[in-house]
Amino acid sequence: MTSADAVLVGVDGCKAGWIAVRCNPGMEPTVDIYASFAALLAANPDDAVLAVDMPIGLPEFSYKGGRGPEALVRPLLGQRQSSVFSIPSRAALYADTNDFTTIEAWYAAHRRASEVAKTTSDPPRGVSIQAFGIFSKIREIDALLIARPELRGRVFESHPEVAFCRLNGDQAMQLPKKIKGTINPAGMAERKALLCRHGYEMGFLDRAPPRGAAADDFLDAAAMMLIAGRLAGGSAKPFPKPPLADGFGIPVAIWA
């Protein structure tokens, strides 16, 4: 299969679940929200190629710098390298899988995950609030890839800033997408211009994101869709090459 005849899907996590930018062969891209990753998969053909901004393949033990991919891509990103954070152990990710009804319970679960992370890392390292916030989404994909090994050949991890860098001729973006948690219009404009050079229409990128997703989620999913095209066409590069594998045999690499 080539990118010319594959359904390409770029995916990012968002407040409402998952935002997906999809392109059918010969068609204009579309954007949709899905409450679960399983629902997203069910809504797409069995041979669709998905690039996802979410860690895939979990370590049993965490070492300085991350699983391997993180340490390889950070030097590419210059000032943007803080956007790549290390993934704690599988045990830390599964330390507390409850749905939290109060903010107190959420912080208590974060503390539990951090304690487990410290006992399964060298040097001992807790869990950042940023990382903990996406644990449930990481587990969602992890569970599907364990239960359905056939997905491992078409659901791939990527990372928006690595994607933008690779799409920009291996030059990192100059401006941040956000400054202190607030959208940075100049950084968004820099990325939109790059996406347009790769075939997007500015009118598509300028539309309001679907309800439940932020503007940067939408842009990141759009970048992921271009990486799905590179994956389908055979031009995407894995970091590391060849990919590693976790304890379940799930490939571990950031593709871009």
UniProtKB/TrEMBL annotation:
<protein>
    <submittedName>
        <fullName>DUF429 domain-containing protein</fullName>
    </submittedName>
</protein>
<dbReference type="Pfam" id="PF04250">
    <property type="entry name" value="DUF429"/>
</dbReference>
<dbReference type="InterPro" id="IPR007362">
    <property type="entry name" value="DUF429"/>
</dbReference>
